[in-house]
């Protein structure tokens, strides 16, 4: 047992820890990782029953046993988060802005009619889990431990209503770079990721399920990802694939403003802050496909990239709008995207001054 020590704690909580009897680490090659396929030794579980949270438990990573009538399976009452722990070659490790993910998880919970998770319990459980499995954090330049908190409905009931009971879990997965090369994106003018009044700003599982079919169609047409547009006119850019999206036009960094249909990305926020720190003009506003087409035509569109936890910065090499295939400048010439990627990597590996206090060191 470990006594929680978080300063915002309301009452003393105990995390019960059951350690694995046989670590899988010796047979895992942390230098050869496919994203999301390897899982570390332990996971955190905390149930919400009869209106209250139980104490968190850390257990060996294993399969779950749930009722086939669990409402999550039928109606998708499920949300998740994605964040990362980083370790440098000298053994220092920590989390990047976990507080922002915790806050967003609770905003998603409210929208999906689920109980919020006490922030201090979430943070302490997360830190304890990452400390316990810190040997699983790969130290490669682009590598990290991807952390997946999730919350789902567990009532054994197939009527449509918000579940009474829920399970919160955290699993972790050592990963390498999400994309190994720059991506091509197709402007999506038929299907929609999110609508006003919908759940687009939440990290709800169903948002991702609904995006798979249009993404598959784009893959079949030879594109890596979609550039989502608004649901009404299909003219204003929203996100790219599972990431926020940014453009550099005439040295200005432009990204769609946050709204009900756009995820408040932690990498998005961090990128905008860093760009401002560097003296760039940053614009959060509506941006039309037409503006991108015009900027490309006039040669002022110098960069486009997705930003998200998984990839950090994902360079977009080409944008296709119908038959108009717009090739963007070579990646070596992308001043901002490359500089951001280097800055974030240095920060997460403790090689540069953390002026905003974004890293929570755990070592
Ligand atoms: C992210 O880039 O942070 C994502 O949400 C991708 C994830 C679903 C793998």
What does this structure look like?
By secondary structure, the protein is of the alpha+beta class. The chain has seven helices and 20 strands. It has helices at 71-75, 98-111, 119-132, 205-220, 266-277, 289-298, 335-348; strands at residues 2-3, 14-17, 42-49, 52-53, 57-60, 78-80, 83-87, 93-96, 144-153, 166-175, 183-188, 225-229, 237-240, 244-249, 252-255, 281-284, 301-308, 312-321, 324-327, 359-361. The strands form two sheets. Strands 1, 2, 3, 4, 5, 6, 7, 8, 9, 10 and 20 form an eleven-stranded mixed beta sheet that branches. The longest helix is centred in the middle third of the chain and has 16 residues, at 205-220. Residues 82, 242-243, 308-311 line the site of 2-OXO-4-methylpentanoic acid.
Topology of this protein?
Layout: E1 2-3, E2 14-17, E3 42-49, E4 52-53, E5 57-60, H1 71-75, E6 78-80, E7 83-87, E8 93-96, H2 98-111, H3 119-132, E9 144-153, E10 166-175, E11 183-188, H4 205-220, E12 225-229, E13 237-240, E14 244-249, E15 252-255, H5 266-277, E16 281-284, H6 289-298, E17 301-308, E18 312-321, E19 324-327, H7 335-348, E20 359-361
Parallel strand pairs: 2-5, 11-12, 11-18, 15-16
Antiparallel strand pairs: 1-2, 3-4, 3-5, 3-10, 6-9, 7-8, 7-9, 8-20, 9-10, 12-13, 14-15, 14-17, 17-18, 18-19
The structure holds 2-OXO-4-methylpentanoic acid (COI).
What is the annotated CATH architecture of the largest domain?
2-Layer Sandwich
Strand content: 25-35%
Q: Approximately how much helix is present in the residues?
A: 10-25%
| Bound ions, cofactors and other small molecules, one mention each | 2-OXO-4-methylpentanoic acid
CATH topology title of the largest domain:
D-amino Acid Aminotransferase, Chain A, domain 1
Number of strands: 20
Task: Give the number of helices.
Answer: 7
Shape: globular
Q: Provide the structure class.
A: alpha+beta
Question: What's the end-to-end separation, in Å?
Answer: 20 Å
CATH homolog superfamily of the largest domain? Aminotransferase class 4, branched-chain amino acid transferase, N-terminal domain
Cα gyration radius (Å): 21 Å
Q: Indicate the low-confidence ranges by residue numbers.
A: 1-12
């Amino acid at each position: 047992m470990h006594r929680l020590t978080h300063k915002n704690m309301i009452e003393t909580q105990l995390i019960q820890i059951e350690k694995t009897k046989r670590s899988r680490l010796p047979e895992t090659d942390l230098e050869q990782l496919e994203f999301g396929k390897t899982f570390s030794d332990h996971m955190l579980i905390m149930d919400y029953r009869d209106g209250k949270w139980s104490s968190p438990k850390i257990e060996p990573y294993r399969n779950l046993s749930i009722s086939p009538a669990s409402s999550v399976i039928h109606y998708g009452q499920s949300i998740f988060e994605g964040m990362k722990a980083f370790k440098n070659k000298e053994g220092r490790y920590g989390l990047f802005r976990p507080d922002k993910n915790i806050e967003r998880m609770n905003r998603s919970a409210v929208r999906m009619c689920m109980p919020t998770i006490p922030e201090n319990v979430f943070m302490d459980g997360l830190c304890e889990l990452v400390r316990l499995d810190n040997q699983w954090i790969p130290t490669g330049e682009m590598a990290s431990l991807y952390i997946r908190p999730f919350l789902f409905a567990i009532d054994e009931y197939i009527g449509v209503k918000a579940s009474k009971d829920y399970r919160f879990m955290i699993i972790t997965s050592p990963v390498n770079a999400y994309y190994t090369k720059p991506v091509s994106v197709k402007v999506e003018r038929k299907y929609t990721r999110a609508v006003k009044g919908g759940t687009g700003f939440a990290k709800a599982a169903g948002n991702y399920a609904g995006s798979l079919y249009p993404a598959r169609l784009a893959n079949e047409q030879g594109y890596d990802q979609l550039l989502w547009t608004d649901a009404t006119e299909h003219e204003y850019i929203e996100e790219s694939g599972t990431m926020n999206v940014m453009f550099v036009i005439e040295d200005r960094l432009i990204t769609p403003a946050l709204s009900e249909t756009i995820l408040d990305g932690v990498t998005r926020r961090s990128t905008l802050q860093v760009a401002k720190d560097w003296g760039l003009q940053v614009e959060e506003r509506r941006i039309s496909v037409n503006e991108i087409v015009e900027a490309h035509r006039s040669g002022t569109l110098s960069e486009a990239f997705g930003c998200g936890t998984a990839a950090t910065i994902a360079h977009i090499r080409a944008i296709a709008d119908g038959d108009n295939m717009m090739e963007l400048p070579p990646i070596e010439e992308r001043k901002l995207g490359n500089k951001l990627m280097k800055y974030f990597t240095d920060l997460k590996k403790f090689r540069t001054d953390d002026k905003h206090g974004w890293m929570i060191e755990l070592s």
